[in-house]
């Protein structure tokens, strides 16, 4: 069955990257088809927290405001004003405070499904975006200067441009023959929501342990979402502990900065890897988000990088159309690739550098990184630069 009206853009994947791109392009009067394999979660008990929780930068907040999604997100977003990072193997300590920039917050901690639902509501209210869900992209071809996309239910869609926003294991990337360099960190991220004895002080906390970083992210209801990155063996041990033993281990690993851990919900492990697609564009094809790059979650930048891709691609497509150029032409898409290549690669390498630097037990490295943390902490202009970069400003 062929859907006769060809779309300007077919987006594979309705994660946060795909949803936000559809919202921006829909607003700009592109005809868009959004294909998503899984039914979205649209309701949940008031007191339940999604296990996927993100630190959303100021730049990402601006993008979500542009999409019109922010008002529906705000009530369940926790602004974090400060960030504290310290090393378990020394006395190095660094403290970032948004007040030093004259800003109200460094960013917000928000559940993934809250952002997804707000974006879906925008799409369903706007005319230009047709959603196919649940549906998967099976294959695609380029018969006569346009993309033909085949879905798993045998429907076919025509498109001027196909965007792969289909995550780490992107089928679009694979079928386009774009190689992705992948390496496993040998770590898992244990994710859970915890209740602490003390208030989280609207602060994002991160302690670097020899086995990996442990982050406490403040939530709007006073609890914290944790990401405990550890070697696979250690992560499995932690997962197998009963709740009381886990809370005790977590409190100790976190040096009781927020007192005892008095409750923990479901615990889930995510394997941690890094991945980098060798190209992000081909004729009539572009990749955004995790389909293009996956990084270590230690600085919480994955979704933020995806949103930057989305903004850059939307800008390139809107400007190409204003100039009456073909939005699927490689020369147009290369502008998007150039705009994002440096930032994506630099962020990935920085995350790798941090991960290796903080994992090293070698005394000179330990000394250097602790001295480095203290030096940066004492150098206000450097700290301001780092904060502005993390905020995506
Ligand atoms: C433990 C952990 C903690 C993290 N914390 C943070 C954080 O604090 N801040 C941050 O910015 N990032 C964080 N990240 C990274 C973040 O999760 C990812 O970068 C982000 O989810 C990627 O979004 P995406 O839309 O590109 O891909 P995804 O979220 O993977 O979405 C892809 C979508 O495509 C769909 N799909 C797949 N194949 C097909 C197909 N063939 N047809 C149709 N649909 C398809 C899938 O169902 C899915 O919905 C973290 C990651 C981990 C593992």
Quick tags:
2 domains, D-Amino Acid Oxidase, Chain A, domain 2, FAD/NAD(P)-binding domain, single chain, binds flavin-adenine dinucleotide, nine-stranded mixed sheet, 11 helices, eight-stranded mixed sheet, alpha+beta, 393 residues
Bound molecules: flavin-adenine dinucleotide
| CATH homologous superfamily descriptor of the largest domain | FAD/NAD(P)-binding domain
How can the largest sheet be summarized? 9 strands, mixed
Low-confidence stretches: none
What does this structure look like?
The chain is an alpha+beta fold. It has two domains: 2-66 and 112-182 and 273-354, FAD/NAD(P)-binding domain; 80-108 and 186-271 and 361-390, 2-Layer Sandwich (D-Amino Acid Oxidase, Chain A, domain 2), CATH 3.30.9. 37% of the residues lie in helices and 31% in strands. The protein contains eleven helices and 20 strands. Strands 5, 6, 12, 13, 14, 15, 16, 17 and 20 form a nine-stranded mixed beta sheet that branches. Strands 1, 2, 8, 9, 10, 11, 18 and 19 form an eight-stranded mixed beta sheet that branches. It has a three-stranded antiparallel beta sheet with strand order 3-7-4. α1 crosses α2, α1 (16-27) packs parallel to α4 (112-125) and α1 packs parallel to α8 (302-322). The longest helix is centred in the C-terminal third of the chain and has 30 residues, at 330-359. It is globular. The N and C termini lie far apart (46 Å). The mean pLDDT is 90. The chain binds flavin-adenine dinucleotide. Flavin-adenine dinucleotide binds at residues 12-18, 35-38, 54-55, 136-137, 165-168, 171, 189, 191, 227, 270, 289-290, 297, 300-304, 306.
């Amino acid at each position: 069955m062929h859907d006769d009206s060809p779309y300007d853009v077919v987006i594979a994947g309705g994660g946060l990257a795909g949803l936000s791109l559809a919202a921006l392009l829909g607003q700009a009067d592109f005809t868009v088809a959004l294909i998503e394999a899984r039914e979205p979660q649209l309701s949940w008990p008031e007191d339940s927290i999604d296990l996927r929780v993100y630190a959303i930068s100021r730049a990402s907040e601006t993008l979500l405001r542009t999409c019109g999604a922010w008002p529906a997100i705000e009530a369940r977003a926790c602004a974090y004003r400060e960030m504290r990072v310290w090393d378990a193997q020394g006395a190095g300590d660094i403290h970032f405070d948004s007040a030093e920039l004259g800003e109200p917050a460094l960013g917000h901690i928000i559940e993934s499904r809250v952002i997804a639902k707000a974006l879906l509501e925008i799409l369903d209210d706007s005319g230009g975006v047709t959603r196919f869900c649940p549906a998967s992209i099976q294959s695609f071809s380029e018969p006569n200067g346009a993309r033909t996309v085949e879905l798993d239910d045998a429907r076919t869609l025509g498109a001027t441009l196909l965007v792969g926003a289909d995550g780490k294991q992107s089928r679009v990337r694979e079928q386009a023959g774009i190689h992705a360099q992948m390496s496993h960190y040998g770590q898992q991220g244990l994710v859970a929501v915890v209740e602490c004895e003390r208030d989280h002080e609207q602060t994002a906390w991160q302690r670097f342990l020899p086995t990996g970083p442990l982050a406490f992210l403040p939530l709007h209801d006073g609890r914290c979402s944790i990401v405990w990155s550890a070697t696979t063996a250690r992560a499995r041990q932690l997962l197998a502990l009963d709740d009381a033993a886990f809370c005790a281990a977590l409190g100790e690993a976190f040096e009781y900065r927020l007192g005892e851990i008095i409750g923990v919900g479901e615990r889930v492990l995510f394997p941690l890897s890094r991945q980098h697609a060798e190209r992000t564009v081909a004729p009539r094809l572009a990749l955004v988000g995790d389909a293009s790059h996956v990084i270590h979650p230690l600085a919480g930048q994955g979704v933020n990088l995806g949103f930057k891709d989305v903004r850059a691609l939307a800008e390139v497509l809107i400007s190409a159309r204003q100039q009456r150029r073909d939005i699927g032409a490689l020369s147009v898409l290369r502008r998007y690739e150039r705009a994002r290549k440096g930032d994506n690669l630099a962020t990935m390498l920085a995350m790798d550098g941090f991960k290796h630097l903080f994992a090293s037990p070698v005394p000179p490295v330990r000394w250097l990184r602790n001295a480095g943390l203290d030096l940066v902490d004492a150098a206000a202009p450097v700290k301001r630069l780092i904060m502005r970069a993390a905020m995506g400003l």
